[in-house]
Amino acid sequence: CYHYKTHRALVQTETLDVRFTKFAVNNTQRLTKHFRRVLDPMLNVYRETKASIFLPASETDVERAHAELASSMHEWLDAEAKGLTDTDIFGVAVREVQWALEDGFSDLRKKNVDLWKASSDEVTRCAARKSHASDQQCGFLCAYNKIPWMHHETNKQHFLECFESTHTHVPLGIQHKVFEQWFNTDLSGERARVWKRFYVSSTVLGGLPVFLFALAISKVGASRSLPQSTTDPRVDHNIVS
Known about the structure:
Blueprint: H1 2-51, H2 59-80, H3 88-118, H4 121-137, H5 148-165, H6 172-185, H7 188-225
Helix pairs in contact: 1-2, 1-3, 2-3, 3-6, 4-5, 5-6
């Protein structure tokens, strides 16, 4: 009788475990399908609405427009997740939405800078002329085309000057971003040459102290290897004793 009761309890426990596991799996599948039905149209609406945001615009306007859109997406998700916010699947859905929003905002900001750059052709041409002139005037001891950060800062100064001289109206924060994009794309070949000169110069100058030290050591070694005279210079050997 004891063994029967023990066996029956074990069977009941195993049966309950199987049923619970099956229920958990089915529940997870239902929740996954539910949130998939919510997320797919939500993210489509997000992408379509994001594409309709007016560009180019100031960074503040872009951030505000996207923040309002992101808030509406979170509200949409919360409304569809009532009573389900304590589930793991809801957490997965929240992360997916957050990733989409972050990626979308990054894309929106890049597109905004691209459009500002496209509308600043006169500025980029002006800056390119200044960059070429600086390179042509740079002599052997000139740092402009040999030290990367000097090259970057000088071109940045030229670029901002060109914004002023061409009367191109672009927000200051955007001007810096337009410059960075222009510098990293349009001047990529020139940047590579500057870095190459910098590496070569660093190698030569870095090896100079080693060369001088080796030269000094070699001279010391050579002097020590010379035969030492045993003659007392104070004695006149021409005197016959």
